[in-house]
Amino acid sequence: MRVLGLLRCNDMTILSKMADVATPLSGQEWGLANLMTSEALERIAAIGGPRCCKRDSFTAVSAAAEFIEEKFGIRLEMPEKIICGFYPMNGQCLGDRCPFHP
H or E segment at 29? Predict the structure, then answer.
């Protein structure tokens, strides 16, 4: 199963465990959760707007997969290239400026 559809059960368990221990009062776990979020937001911001939920989701999942591999040595199954099939329904699509546009 590909990450784009759903995280595999084992991968979801790892993420949920990270979320379970990452509270505002925890130390390293709280920092890692915020670091992963900040990396995803930085990539989303670099692409620019206007807003696109699919583009932001694809970007965040890709960033999270890379972060998890880098920090925990766990490789999530991802497609070689994510291609968006929703662009015809988005009047504000960035077209060729979107990294997921076909």
Answer: helix 28-47
